[in-house]
Automatic annotation (TrEMBL):
Boundaries of every Integrase catalytic domain copy: 39-204
Species: Strongyloides stercoralis
GO MF annotation list: nucleic acid binding
Domain of life: Eukaryota
InterPro entries: Integrase_cat-core, Retrovirus_Pol_polyprotein, RNaseH-like_sf, RNaseH_sf
Biological process according to GO: DNA integration
Family matches, as PROSITE patterns: INTEGRASE
Phylogenetic placement of the source organism: Eukaryota, Metazoa, Ecdysozoa, Nematoda, Chromadorea
Pfam families registered for this protein in UniProt: rve (PF00665)
Protein name from the UniProt record: Integrase catalytic domain-containing protein
Amino acid sequence: MESLCRKFFIFNSLYARIKDKYNSCEVCIEFRRNKKQLISGWPEVTESHERWHSDMTEYLGNRFLLVTDIFSHFTILRKMRSLHARELQETLSNIFSDFGKPKIFVSDNATLFRAESTMEAFKNWDVYQAFSIPMCPESNGHAEKRIALAKNHIKKTLSNCKNFTECLKKCQLAITERIVRNNKTAYELFFSLTTPVKDILANYHYEPKVMNVQCKFKKCREDATWYEETVIEQIHKNCFRIQSNNKYFFRKGDAINCMFKGKIITQAETLSSNLSTKNLSSTESSPTRSYTPDTINNADFAQTLEANDILNCFYEEINIK
């Protein structure tokens, strides 16, 4: 109004009176425009599990619950059969047991979230329950954005899935593997993973060593006899392959006594000997590692002391049929 007056009139000291008249005029009050929409938001989060936002939605008649962690954008999707508060509580209980509990849980004002039993369940879980502003979906915008993202993934994935539940699993995996910040995925931020995967896998890699060391070992732990044979290969840090009567035995270090000139020596002394070991690249082959169906059948797996460990060590190297 002031700008309109300035366009056609020149006067002084009347702007305050005009504004006062505008604020007290019943017609002006009834038909005035909306106020400018102010931008407001939730407090900044500093860690995972600080605040989660949630919402219910559906896609092509399939109803599902979305829960997202604000710090990491880690998103959880669960199919819902109904809008009953009891089913919501069961679903949230499963989510909390799988992924931990947030400090603050934000949702809209839907009946199943506002139900007395649901609010009591949050008290028992020791989770503070907060609600978005009624009739203002923007106040739960974090969940709204994740829903739009989830529906976009569902649209692309559903036709290639057996059912909607399988589709939600694939979509959840795709969303959590997105890069969020600092070149880290939502999954890495949510679970506070700091070590790169390649560095972790390096701890599990071991280069086998060819050996030719005399030893004494037990075929069974209950045996009183130590058999004199030859350790032909170290396949892991504490796992060795022994050849005896055209059979192969796999033993851990505590079932072997390495010998040198009639004297028991430690494994460290054995491995440090230049005459006993050499590195064997995983891409190389040696006569002792030339596996054939006959040699595999001759390997005495049934009598190994650590059968489970052997299978774990060899599941990538030996194709047992």
